[in-house]
Amino acid sequence: MGRTAALRVGSFVLVAALAACGGGSSKEPPLENFTAQQIYERGEYELEVGNPRRPAEALRYFSEVERLYPYSEWAKRALIMEVYAQHKAKKYEDARSSAQRFLDTYPGDEDAAYAKYLLALSYYDQIDEVGRDQGLTFQALQSLREVIEQYPDSDYARSAMLKFDLAFDHLAAKEMEIGRYYLKQGHYTAAINRFRVVVEQFQTTTQTPEALERLVEAYLALGITDEAQTAGAILGHNFQSSPFYDDAYRQLKKQGLSPEAKGDSWLSKIYRQVIKGEWL
User: Any idea where the Outer membrane lipoprotein BamD-like domain is (predicted)?
Assistant: First the structure.
């Protein structure tokens, strides 16, 4: 019998042992009657069967391993699985607490990188809407950065980098959402301030082309043509194939203007950085 098949048979035997008592009763026998490994494997089984309610049940077994067999190797394994199960159950605050407890107790363990990654995910997976408070986004960025910097050679560093970029883009999207609202309301200066944040602080995100196009729109509405032309020039230099550039170009042409660097505004400084290759 192969190792995988043997494990499956063992799991079903263990499930039967834990699920029934002598005399056919459905009441589970005391967990003290089982070894740490047996209780741990029952927790794993509860996670693997796929029932949406299983993570909470699995947590009970993992926590019992810690309670009954503290300081054992199985207790350490159970703690990292608690973090995973809590995250799977969307108990994000509990997952962060357990992950930090693992890191405090086993800082040099081979699973420390995984614990740190799950801690970061517990913030990241709560970033579900642009309109929500951005505190979680900042915390996700900080935690993901720590994974990247502290465990650069781990299996989780690359995933953390990708999620960091998405979370960073999320912050820029929030600025754009507010800026578009101000622009629609005719509050052009307030809108410009939001789009400026995107251009100066989030220039590597996917929001930058639209931010530049909106700057063209807002500055033209205020009759500040130098800045509008310069924003169009930056857009053309970096995103000429973007539909946002096409729209900005049409807006400028409609007023007899062209995309070119003019004046000495904050946008002119960025334009010079672009030409020197120091931006983006």
Answer: 35-231
The token pair at 154 is 């781990």
DSSP string, 202-250: -TTSTTHHHHHHHHHHHHHHHT-HHHHHHHHHHHHHHHTTSHHHHHHHH
Q: Quick check: 155 and 117 in contact, CB under 8 A?
A: no
Q: Work out the number of other CB atoms within 10 angstroms of the CB of residue 262.
A: 19
Whether pTM exceeds 0.90? no
Map out the domains of the chain with their CATH numbers: 13-109 (1.25.40.10), 186-280 (no CATH)
Tens of pLDDT, residue by residue over 235-276, are 999 999 999 999 999 999 999 999 999 989 999 999 988 775
Rounded Cα gap, residues 151 and 130, in angstroms = 29
Query: What is Dmax (Cα atoms) for the chain?
Result: 92
DSSP state of 29: P
